[in-house]
Design a protein that fits this description.
The complex is a heterodimer. Chain A has helices spanning 4-41, 47-51, 65-96, 100-114, 117-132, 137-161, 165-173, 178-206, 210-213, 233-241, 246-273. By secondary structure, chain A is mainly α. The two termini of chain B are 24 Å apart. Classes of the chains: A mainly alpha, B alpha/beta.
């Protein structure tokens, strides 16, 4: 029969092992997915893959050049719309957000965060694509922006709230106006966190497919005009994966690998760029 | 007053020019609240209000035409925990108060920052790394940096809210010596919960208890010959 101390130690070791196992299990899918993608997609990825457009049905080869550029354009324009609005709303909520309006904005943002992305796509189709008369990359960008704004708003607000009140006090006591305190001191201090939140949101929307189905639609050609339908890597993966040709399926894996690699590289580069520059005492 | 409940009542104090006045009293007795009324910082708290007058050189700072920004240029404040702006260098920290009040020329800023750092006794230690981050300094140095930041705009009055309670004894000593130097150019008011510190550094002392100003007078008199029984009980350590 174990005494109390041994029982405690055993229990502690058990729990440590259990939580470690849970952590490993949690990250396992990421590694499995990436490994499988490399296994299935590496054969399709060569130089041609990056510089050619998709080949006609039945013809082998071809690449995803238009999709890569398209992803860049749609995500880029979407971020140009979504990031300023999201960060601005986040700053407002954090610095001046105690009234009824702030409560409403926060509530709406939380609801929007949970809205299925395909619904957002349908919404933009109704209010943007239909009046315009055609699909476009711009409509796709708008859909992505709508998805992005609640994410960015909430993370921005959280990051700003983390700035200690003593910093605000110090600035006000120095004679700073409320605005200057908010922007030059508080937001400046929260910038690394805000940027991380923004980059996470950008990485999220890079992979979105459903909202683009009704807005950017896709395009077999290489296009850079935002007023035309545009192809993205996510749409390309979808188009190839449900297609009838085994060749297409092979290319789908390649496109998926490129997409994941893109997001991963972007994320790592972003973390590196926003690493804490000063070590606090 | 906060939301209708008075935090401090019936306080009437004079702060003679170029002296150090210490405000002492047990925790929660309203010392910091009173101090914050002197540069209108209590206005940061929603629901806070003030009755009465605070005269700076004879003019009430609560008159409607007084600009709080301009007031805070003339009445500076240093807080308990050192709060250097983490995204700014040492130079930019000290220059912050200057820039916000319109000083822009680099030469002008350089001179004023230099003299503020000398005034805070920090020049020797940092003059070779003015562009370094302010958070790389030690706690005591950071607090002296905050003092330099407060004195750079050359205010008339400096308010210090328990400036050494978060510091080690050596830094505390350095700042106490600094306060003695400061009074030559500024009028200083220090809130402290450390009676001995008050006795060491101040010319005048005011004792607050439960939101009331109990007694005030020259420091030596208040400690050796207090007039009120509550004062005597506090300074002899019968309660804290």
């Amino acid at each position: 029969m174990m005494n109390r101390r041994d029982r405690r130690r055993l229990f502690s070791r058990l729990m440590t092992t259990a939580t470690l196992a849970a952590a490993l299990l949690a990250v396992l899918p990421l590694f499995l997915i990436f490994a499988y993608l490399v296994f299935k997609g590496a054969s399709s990825v060569n130089v041609d893959f990056f510089i050619q457009n998709p080949a006609p049905p039945g013809v082998s080869g071809g690449g995803v050049a238009n999709a890569i550029v398209g992803t860049g354009i749609v995500v880029g324009v979407g971020s140009l719309i979504g990031l300023p609005l999201g960060v601005g709303a986040g700053i407002y909520l954090a610095e001046y957000g105690s009234g009824k309006l702030a409560y409403t904005v926060r509530f709406v943002a939380d609801v929007l965060n949970g809205t299925p992305s395909i619904i957002v796509g349908v919404f933009v189709f109704t209010w943007f694509v239909r009046p315009m008369g055609h699909f476009s990359a711009l409509a796709g960008a708008v859909a992505l922006a709508i998805l992005m704004i609640p994410m960015v708003t909430r993370t921005t607000e959280e990051m700003i709230r983390l700035v200690p009140n003593s910093l605000r006090e110090a600035a006000l006591a120095l004679g700073y106006t409320r605005w200057r305190t908010s922007l030059a001191i508080v937001v400046r201090t929260a910038t690394p966190g805000i940027m991380t939140g923004a980059l996470v949101a950008v990485a999220r929307i890079t992979g979105e497919t459903a909202p683009l189905l009704f807005t950017a639609l896709g395009n077999v050609n290489f296009r850079t005009d935002v007023m035309e339908p545009m192809q993205t890597l996510s749409l390309q993966v979808y188009a190839y994966a449900v297609g009838p040709f085994p060749e297409w399926h092979r290319l789908a894996w390649g496109a998926a690998l490129v997409l994941v690699a893109l997001v991963l590289t972007f994320g790592i580069a972003a973390r590196y760029a926003t690493r804490a520059k000063y070590e606090a005492n | 007053m906060f939301g209708g409940k008075p935090a401090v009542r019936d306080a009437s104090l004079e702060f003679p020019t170029n002296t150090v006045t210490a405000i002492i009293g047990p925790s929660g007795c309203g010392k910091s609240t009173f101090l914050r009324c002197l540069n209108r910082m209590h206005e940061m708290v929603p629901g806070a209000s003030v009755e009465g007058k605070v005269l700076l050189d004879g003019e009430d700072i609560y008159e409607p035409d007084v600009n709080p920004i301009e007031l805070r240029r003339r009445v500076g404040m240093v807080f308990q925990r050192p709060t250097p702006f983490p995204t700014m260098s040492i130079f930019d920290n000290v220059a912050a108060g200057l820039r916000t009040h319109g000083h822009r020329k680099p030469k002008d800023l350089g001179e004023r920052v230099g003299s503020a750092l000398r005034g805070a006794g920090l020049w020797e230690e940092v003059n070779d790394r003015l562009d370094a981050s302010a958070v790389a300094l030690s706690g005591g140095q950071q607090q002296r940096l905050c003092i330099a930041r407060a004195i750079a705009p050359q205010p008339d009055v400096i308010l210090l809210d328990e400036p050494t309670s978060a510091l080690d004894p050596i830094s505390t000593q350095a700042i106490e010596d600094l306060i003695q130097d400061l009074k030559a150019h500024f009028t200083v008011v220090v809130v402290t919960h450390n009676m001995q510190q008050a006795a060491r550094i101040s010319d005048f002392t005011a004792f607050f208890y439960l939101g009331e100003l109990v007694e005030t007078g020259p420091t030596e008199d208040l400690f050796t010959n207090p007039k009120q029984s509550r004062t005597e009980a506090y300074v002899t350590g019968r309660f804290g």
